[in-house]
Amino acid sequence: xxxxxxxxxxxxxxxxxxxxxxxxxxxxxxxxxxxxxxxxxxxxxxxxxxxxxxxxxxxxxxxxxxxxxxxxxxxxxxxxxxxxxxxxxxxxxxxxxxxxxxxxxxxxxxxxxxxxxxxxxxxxxxxxxxxxxxxxxxxxxxxxxxxxxxxxxxxxxxxxxxxxxxxxxxxxxxxxxxxxxxxxxxxxxxxxxxxxxxxxxxxxxxxxxxxxxxxxxxxxxxxxxxxxxxxxxxxxxxxxxxxxxxxxxxxxxxxxxxxxxxxxxxxxxxxxxxxxxxxxxxxxxxxxxxxxxxxxxxxxxxxxxxxxxxxxxxxxxxxxxxxxxxxxxxxxxxxxxxxxxxxxxxxxxxxxxxxxxxxxxxxxxxxxxxxxxxxxxxxxxxxxxxxxxxxxxxxxxxxxxxxxxxxxxxxxxxxxxxxxxxxxxxxxxxxxxxxxxxxxxxxxxxxxxxxxxxxxxxxxxxxxxxxxxxxxxxxxxxxxxxx
Length: 483
Ligand code: GBH
Fold this sequence. Notes:
The strands form four sheets. The chain has an eight-stranded parallel beta barrel with strand order 2-3-4-5-6-8-12-13, surrounded by five helices. The protein is built from 15 helices and 16 strands. Helix content is 41%, strand content 15%. Helix 3 (64-78) packs parallel to helix 5 (103-118). By secondary structure, it is an alpha/beta fold. The protein has helices at 24-27, 40-47, 64-78, 89-92, 103-118, 134-138, 147-162, 175-183, 194-224, 245-267, 273-286, 298-304, 359-372, 394-412, 458-469; strands spanning 2-4, 17-21, 82-86, 122-128, 168-173, 227-233, 236-239, 311-314, 318-322, 332-333, 338-341, 378-383, 418-424, 443-445, 454-456, 475-477.
């Protein structure tokens, strides 16, 4: 493959963190091995296989439980500074409760961490990437307030066992999507608790994050010297008509409902005022006995405010919003009163229909975060592209090129304090409800092969080149068989 990258002079800072990410349920397999307990994803795929697009599951996935050394080698050869992976809670404690620990599960992550450190790759641990132990779900899962204490105790075990070597922690990956799994049957536990469950689960996730953060700060930080944050996901919203004050206000409101929901409590304390106002009003209209947006106590506000050592976020795509519906088919968010659409010039046939490349959306988002939260250190903890799995993945290369370029512009022209960029994902893996139909890897995994053979794609060579040079303005000759 030969790809011309737009010529430009900007360079990534020397200490810029480049890396790649995975998540336990999506890659590990070994779902019931060595004492691991059942989690909500095991439960969902086993009780309702028909809900997964292609009927696949994560029983074996990439078999990384056995092949982690190969994965680390692939990360090494890619030249990344860090590898972001998640820990399977039910591998550490089968029921999720910390009175019974699973030594083999704890040992697995010790081996993985040591392997990374031996190869000079910084481990970044996500504590929770969507795989709640089923026992805790049977207790109600994230809509039960006690879950924040179970999470804190789980975090304590991780700090104790791994904190001597792990200096970067993400408590929770994408609380927004976790809440959707409770409210709108999008993911496990596949419940339809609607907006009440939406706001309640999010509330408890935020408190859980706050408790884990404070625990680290009070008990571990002075000796372990690490950093800790929460990975906040979300689309970025732009006004459909950039000249319309209505649309501008609507886009701002949409961004507060999508991103401010989790960021405002951490950076400013409490929910965004616009959410409080709109949801309280709507609750009243609907006659619920109290607002379905729960209220933090003063202590909880203090617990959560300031609970991030850097701003971690996952970002993939952008939408236009308007207050007035233009298209009757457009998605309408009734809580926040906005209609969603897509710019015609963006239209692209993506295997993942939601993943419309809008590189400038990332740049606008970085500027938005900078202005809204006083330019915190911003760490892109996921960005990547899904396709059908071909090795000559030019669409992925052009997607990453666009988003990396947008990042460079934000750093050099907009003074955004961006410190890291993470490609999702190192490997093709189990893409939740889409099964293995959509592939995100820089490395192909052959799921028909019991060995789960791994083969680097063109994008692997592309990203390696960016990491090695810090540049985008080079003619890149990629021989993906030869990387
Ligand atoms: C991330 O979520 C996850 O952290 C990761 O595990 C996953 O593999 C990766 O992205 C790729 O998907 O709401 O109709 O627009 C990304 C956020 C949000 C993407 C919900 C899919 C569903 C389609 N996800 N979205 S829609």
